Amino acid sequence: MSYVITSPCIEEQAADCLDSCPVDCIEKGEDQYLIDPTICIDCGACEAVCPVDAIFYEEDVPEEETEFIAKAKEFFDV
């Protein structure tokens, strides 16, 4: 499991999460930031600083946002 960045990031892209990540697992995608699920250490630092509440632990991603789990996996070729 890892953290997942969902749709609110598409409009905001504040990037507060980048500075908070101790393992640099967050990258800029085409339209939002994405978390590499193979590098994420599940620390939750990014979730705590997200100004638009776009970051969720994978098991807690709202049902209407689950497509973002696949989007991150596809981006990182997992």
Automatic annotation (TrEMBL):
Which cofactors, if any, are listed as required? Answer: [3Fe-4S] cluster; [4Fe-4S] cluster
Q: What UniProt keywords apply to this chain's record, in alphabetical order?
A: 4Fe-4S, Electron transport, Iron, Iron-sulfur, Metal-binding, Transport
Q: What GO MF annotations does this protein's record show? A: 4 iron, 4 sulfur cluster binding; electron transfer activity; metal ion binding
Which residue numbers delimit the 4Fe-4S ferredoxin-type domain?
31-60
Pfam families for the chain: Fer4
Q: Does the keyword Transport apply?
A: yes
Q: Which PROSITE patterns match?
A: 4FE4S_FER_1, 4FE4S_FER_2
Indicate yes or no for the key word Heme. Answer: no
Q: Which InterPro entries does this one have?
A: 4Fe4S_Fe-S-bd, 4Fe4S_Fe_S_CS, 7Fe_ferredoxin, RnfB_subfamily
Q: What does this protein do?
A: Ferredoxins are iron-sulfur proteins that transfer electrons in a wide variety of metabolic reactions.
Q: Which protein, by its recorded name, is this? A: Ferredoxin
Q: Which species is listed as the source? A: Cytobacillus horneckiae
